[in-house]
Amino acid sequence: MSKTITIDGQIIPFEEGQTIMEAATEAGVYIPHLCHNPEFTPHGSCKLCTVNVNGRTCSACTFPAMEGQQILNDAKDINEDRKKITQMLFVEGNHFCPSCEKTGNCQLQAVAYHLNMLDDHFPLFYPHREMDASHAEVLIDHNRCIFCTLCVRASQQKDGKDVFAISGRGINKHLIVNAESGLLKDSELKATDQAAHVCPTGAILIKRTGYQIPIGERIYDHTQIDQVSLNSENLQHDN
Amino acid sequence: MYEHLETAKNQTNLKRIVVDPVSRVEGHGKVTLLLDAENKVQQARLHIVEFRGFERFIQGRPYWELPVLVQRLCGICPVSHHLAAAKAIDQLVGVDPVNLPVAAEKLRRLLHFGQVFQSHALHFFHLSSPDLLFGFESEISKRSVIAVLGAYPDLGVQGVMMRKYGQEVIRMISGKRVHGTGAIAGGMNKSLTKAERDYLLKDIDQMIDWSVASVELIKKVHCSNLPYYDDFGTIRSNYLGLTKPNGALELYHGGLRAKNDKGETIIDHVDYCQYNDYIHEEVRSWTYMKFPYLLSLGKENGWYRVGPLARVNNCDFIDTPLAEAARVEFKAHSGEAMVHSTLAFHWARLIETLHCAESIKLLLNDPDILSHDLVAQGEKRYEGVGVVEAPRGTLFHHYQVDENDIVTKANLIVSTTSNNMAMNESVRQVAAEYLSGQELTEPLLNNLEVAIRAYDPCLSCATHAMGKMPLQLELINAEGQLIDKLVKHSNGDIERNIHD
């Protein structure tokens, strides 16, 4: 008999060593997330996948599944907290969806829709953040970075490079580039690197490709993020 | 002309009347009148009281964002900004208009015809028809499209359906009725499917019929009260717009043509990329809107009008038959080379509406709009200028980028900006000829708005005089005494401690 956990009353089998997120995804249960990507080591930083395990609050992407866990996932108060976290991500950066080229393909935007986020709620910070357009093919718009570290992990774990890192703490946290000048053009990044394609928001973009996909054909135009995320055919977009 | 009423010679003991806001226009503006003891108008101004500043905050953004970002200037004519910016960034990727794929150009034209069609229908039926059908001084309850729907239900519904049709054209091509995507550097991101084309073809004959009826309606309204309609708010001016190389009416791409009030050519077939050699802008202290003028005629005499009246006046002919017949009749009615009547803007606008409907039908029957050959590519450049004829007139977008594809400089001359002087002149004409010396009542003041409305101004599109407006900062203590004063002049000079 395989071991099981229970998520929102549904009994879900898991294999030893799986996280709650992995077991849930395999069973077709969506747990909202941004910094999680099954291709990379879990990071547990965005806190969107927070679930309640036997009365304790845990990150589903890092917490191991264990026999008999009673887990609350799609619960009103948990989703309210997730919405607040998403609102905080929006206000601490500069996310202008109406003109952003990632609109319709953006996980941050899609998860906000999924959580029924209708406003920012918190006062906008309007931080002053620079763009790094120095690279011939790749652009960093720091305004949209949510510090998920997916680019950091992709560069290290898939590309065999070490192009990105997060520096600073708290509100001063920021994405840095491994180059003496600090500029992307002087780094080892190539447009074909996975790190250049893994960003869940519009912070790292391939230049001169914006708006080429018409409205109606973008990832989240007709399908919500939970379905996209669970659909294995779309895993490459659900990084 | 009425320029002497821009600033009263002596402002003491004058009574101030304010029309705020100017209603049934896009954006926010107000009119101020200064009257003497006999209610004689001593000063009349149209002020644009909002500020947008797009020219500044698009600096630092990558150029491919421009068509999508800048279209947010407006909710009525975003397609015009979208296309003007797209034409400019075509050049940044080395694609000149002649090298744009045929399908992309035709789809852009179709998109633009849909846009002008819906915008003109919106303006005539929703915004202006209450004045034209019920009278300029009608009671306030009648001055809305709701009253038109009550008194003339067929006409009201027709207006709503015409606007809807134009927006459906936009939606089929750009994905959304307002603020979609579509044009990208060097082309378009999608063509029409057969199903989308057939959906639009279904109603186009009805749109043409309604457009013909609209032209007949405005002709009847105008000609039934000809001396009044030909005089109200009317000023003699120069006219600017694009025309095709053969002199035909053109909305998407052509050369610049300007004619004076006698119909004599000032410039013709000018490459719009050289616009800066022909058109400059002046900043005045009392409004956020600049005053463009033709360089060869100078600030005093070089101001001009743009929009439907200018285009129909300037062109030699219209290349769709029903609109051309309407144009010939329109030009003949005035007996002059140019029609100067400000209220004739409405008539010209509906002739263009008919032209759009006819052109939409032609393009929908053109198999090129189904083609998937949509994008061209060339050598990178660092500067691009895009010009289209927006519903309200000639629209200029001019951008410079650096080696990293980032916008470093932007200049927008928006249609309504070009009509700034003319709208002020028309306001002053109405104030001087129709209001001066009378006891001003609310219905009477609507006359000022009727004159402004004829231009179909989009005030929110047109306010970009950032950094050039004079500013005055006053520090006043609890007793109301002026402690300190800082003044920044238009030329950037700053003075301090100036005591009145």
Summary of the model, kept short:
With 239 residues, chain A is α+β, with helices and mostly antiparallel strands. Helix content of chain A is 19%, strand content 16%. Chain B has helices at residues 54-57, 66-70, 78-92, 102-134, 145-151, 153-174, 194-223, 226-231, 298-301, 308-314, 321-334, 344-364, 415-418, 420-435, 442-454, and strands spanning 15-19, 29-35, 41-48, 183-184, 187-188, 238-243, 255-259, 265-270, 279-282, 291-294, 304-305, 383-390, 393-401, 407-413, 471-476, 482-488, 494-496.
Give an overview in words.
The complex is a heterodimer of chains A (239) and B (500). Chain A is α+β, with helices and mostly antiparallel strands and 239 residues long. In chain A, 19% of the residues lie in helices and 16% in strands. The two termini of chain A are 32 Å apart. In chain B, α3 runs antiparallel to α4 (102-134). The model of chain B has no long low-confidence stretch (mean pLDDT 92). In chain B, a hairpin with a 5-residue loop joins β16 (482-488) and β17 (494-496). Chain B has helices spanning 54-57, 66-70, 78-92, 102-134, 145-151, 153-174, 194-223, 226-231, 298-301, 308-314, 321-334, 344-364, 415-418, 420-435, 442-454, and strands spanning 15-19, 29-35, 41-48, 183-184, 187-188, 238-243, 255-259, 265-270, 279-282, 291-294, 304-305, 383-390, 393-401, 407-413, 471-476, 482-488, 494-496. Chain B has 2 domains: 54-424, Cytochrome-c3 Hydrogenase, chain B; 471-500, no CATH class. At the A-B interface, loops of A face α2 of B.
